[in-house]
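In response to reviewer comment 3 from the previous cycle, which asked for concrete evidence that the modeling workflow produces usable outputs, we include below a single protein chain processed end to end. The sequence was submitted unchanged, and the resulting structure tokens are shown without manual editing.
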Amino acid sequence: MKHHSLIFLTGFSGSGKSTIGPLLANSLGFEFIDLDREIELAAGKSINRIFAEDGEDAFRSLELSTLEKIGRQEKMVVSLGGGVLENDRCFELISTHGTLIYLKSSPEILTLRLQHKTDRPLLKGPDGQKLTREEIQQRIAELLKKREPRYLKADLVFFTDSKKIGTSVEELTRKIERHIRRASKNNTNEK
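The workflow returned the following structure tokens.
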């Protein structure tokens, strides 16, 4: 069953999900959950260690089982990992159970935000080495090309490149509240 008050934030790593998410949840009076943190708690180790020791497939399996538990909740803002929508079952679960919001940023801005991060497994070289700024931007562009068709299927698309956090949260809160009201009204009319 679709819970319009179950808000999923998607977008590339660095798009603002973990920064905007808790503030948005507070503004809406909802709880906030970071899916990656929930996976780390369930696995008892970091995302980097899961990737290194168990592989991406094991990580994606944990991601799905964690999402299935979250899908039964309401009044919650959930920050998703950047690649979760690539999994058809995850995408279907999210689309069926809640409202999906794409926090969109350009590859250039994402590169600026991510170039000094060391905790993003997909932005490392094959041996775990740090990539150059140019390599990071190229990797981001490649991954975005692959992921963005799914991101764009979101219920709402929200640009995060040049907005201040407070302005983004206020604007996004208003859009979500309007969306929830419209969706609830449509559900009532369909009965």
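The first strand starts at residue 6 and ends at 10. We consider this sufficient to address the reviewer's concern, and the full set will be provided in the supplementary archive.
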